[in-house]
Design goal:
By secondary structure, the protein is of the alpha/beta class. The protein folds into two domains: 174 residues, 3-Layer(aba) Sandwich (Rossmann fold), CATH 3.40.50; 210 residues, 3-Layer(aba) Sandwich (Rossmann fold). Helices cover 34% and strands 24% of the residues. The structure holds cytidine-5'-triphosphate. Cytidine-5'-triphosphate binds next to α12 and β16.
Length: 398
C-alpha cells in the first residue's frame, strides 16, 4: 500500500513514543522506507538502538551531525521524503512549529521541508485543551499541516480525555490518505453533525444522544480526500476533526442558517440528529415551580427540515445531497420513501434496533439508497463507513 514511499519520521518526547515503534514496523510492512529522527526528549522514552533496528537504518539525532555529510544535510533530509510525520507530536513541538522555530534537528527539518507534514499529537488533556495549544493547532491547520488524533481515553498520567496519540493503524491510514490521490481537491462539501439543543428556558434544553461520531468521521474522510469541508456541528461529545472549517451551533434554526451560509457547495452530507421540535414558548427567564404541583405547559413548534430545505433549493442546490435515516423496521422501504419526500440524492440508512448495538457503538451497518436502488454495505467501523462514503462522493463528483 505504501510501496516505494519515503517517510521522514520525527519521534518527539512523550510516553506515546513506544507506539511509534509499532508504527515503524507497520510502515515497513506496508512497503515504506522510514528515515527516523529522534529528538532529545524522545530519547528519554525510546532508545536510538530500538528505533534504528526497526527502521533498518541509522537514526538522526543531531542538527550538527549532518553538516559532516554535506553543508546542507538537514535541507536534503527534509526534502528526500514524500511525507514528514511527527509522532508523537508534543505540545512543545507544535508550539515551535507554529512559531517557526528551528533550534534542533526536528524543528529545522519541519521548517525546511517542502513536503506535506502529518502530526500525531499526544499530550496531557489539559495541555491539549489549553488555549495556547488550540491557537497553535489552528495556525498549523491554516498552514496546511495534517493531523491524526488525538484519541480520547485514559492516559499514562492518570487523567482521562482527548490527548492520547492515535493508534498506529489510524496513523498508518492517515499516512496512506496523505500520500494517496486527493480526488476532492478543489471541491467544497458541507457536513452537518451532532445533536441540536432546543432551549426551554435559559438553563434547560431538549436534546438527544447523538455523539457526532459518524458525522465527524465523514468530515475527516472528505478532508483526507482533499475537500474543503464546512463542518456545521451541534453540541457533540466527539471533538471536531482537524483540517475542516468548524461552525458551532446549538439549535436547528441556527443549523439551518449556518448550512445555508456555507453554500454554494459541490456536495452536502446531513449527518446531524436534528430535533424535530423546538419549544415555541421558551421562557426568557428560568421557569420556577409555582407551588401548584402542576408542570409548566410547553408549546412545541416544528423545526425546519435542513436537509429538505437544501435539497429542494431551486438556486444553488449542491450537485449531490446526502441524507441519513435511522430506522428500526422496513429500513429500505422507509429510507426510500424518505429520499423521495426530502428530495435528496442519496440516503444512508441504518438499522438502529437496540439489538444491533449500533446506536452509540463504534460500528455501523448501512444501506445506501440511490436513484438506482438499495445497496447493503457489510457491517464495519464508523470510520470505514465514512471512508467508503467519501470515496463514493468523490466518484459522483468526478
Ligand atoms: N434532518 C434535517 N433537519 C431536520 C430533521 C432531519 O436536516 N429538522 C436530516 C437529518 O440530518 C438526516 C435526515 O434528515 O439526514 C433524517 O431525517 P428524519 O426525517 O429526521 O429521519 P429520522 O430521524 O429517521 O426520523 P423519522 O423516521 O421520524 O422521519
Amino acid at each position: 500500500m505504501l510501496a516505494g514511499k519515503r517517510i521522514l519520521l520525527i519521534i518527539g518526547g512523550g510516553i506515546a513514543a513506544y507506539k511509534t515503534l509499532e508504527l515503524i514496523r507497520r510502515l515497513r510492512d506496508a512497503g515504506a522506507a522510514v528515515t527516523p529522527v529522534l529528538t532529545r526528549a524522545g530519547e528519554e522514552f525510546v532508545t536510538p538502538l530500538s528505533v534504528s533496528a526497526l527502521a533498518g537504518t541509522a537514526v538522526h539525532r543531531d542538527l550538527f551531525d549532518l553538516t559532516q555529510e554535506a553543508e546542507i544535510g538537514h535541507i536534503q533530509l527534509s526534502r528526500a521524503a514524500d511525507l514528514v510525520v511527527a509522532a508523537p507530536a508534543t505540545a512543545d513541538l507544535m508550539a515551535k512549529m507554529a512559531g517557526g522555530h528551528a533550534d534542533d534537528l526536528a524543528t529545522t527539518l519541519l521548517l525546511a521541508t517542502d513536503k506535506p507534514v502529518l502530526l500525531a499529537p499526544a499530550m496531557n488533556v489539559r495541555m491539549w485543551d489549553h488555549p495556547a495549544t488550540r491557537r497553535n493547532l489552528a495556525q498549523l491547520t491554516a498552514d496546511g499541516v495534517l493531523t491524526v488524533g488525538p484519541d480520547e481515553g485514559p492516559m499514562a498520567c492518570g487523567e482521562v480525555g482527548p490527548g492520547r496519540m492515535a493508534e498506529p493503524a489510524a496513523i498508518l491510514a492517515a499516512i496512506a490518505a496523505a500520500l494517496g490521490p486527493r480526488p476532492l481537491s478543489g471541491r467544497r462539501v458541507l457536513v452537518t453533525s451532532g445533536p441540536t439543543h432546543e432551549p426551554i428556558d435559559p438553563v434547560r434544553y431538549i436534546a438527544n444522544r447523538s455523539s457526532g461520531a459518524q458525522g465527524t468521521a465523514i468530515a475527516a474522510a472528505l478532508a483526507a480526500l482533499g475537500a474543503e469541508v464546512v463542518f456545521v456541528t451541534g453540541p457533540a461529545s466527539v471533538p471536531p476533526p482537524a483540517g475542516v472549517t468548524v461552525v458551532r451551533v446549538e439549535t436547528a434554526c441556527e443549523m439551518l442558517a449556518a448550512a445555508e451560509a456555507a453554500l454554494p457547495a459541490d456536495a452536502a452530507v446531513f449527518a446531524a440528529a436534528v430535533a424535530d421540535w423546538r419549544v415555541a414558548n421558551a421562557a426568557g427567564r428560568k421557569i420556577k415551580k409555582d407551588g401548584s404541583g402542576r408542570p409548566p405547559a410547553l408549546d412545541f413548534a416544528e423545526n425546519p427540515d435542513i436537509l429538505a430545505a437544501v435539497a429542494q433549493r431551486r438556486a444553488g442546490r449542491p450537485r449531490l445531497v446526502v441524507g441519513f435515516a435511522a430506522e428500526t423496521d422496513d429500513v429500505v422501504a422507509h429510507a426510500t420513501a424518505k429520499r423521495a419526500r426530502k428530495g435528496c440524492d442519496w440516503i444512508v440508512a441504518n438499522d438502529v434496533r437496540p439489538e444491533t448495538g449500533i446506536m452509540g457503538g463504534a460500528e455501523n451497518a448501512v444501506t445506501l439508497i440511490t436513484a438506482s436502488g438499495a445497496e447493503a454495505w457489510p457491517r464495519m467501523g464508523k470510520d470505514a463507513v465514512a471512508r467508503r462514503l467519501a470515496d463514493r462522493i468523490a466518484a459522483a463528483l468526478a
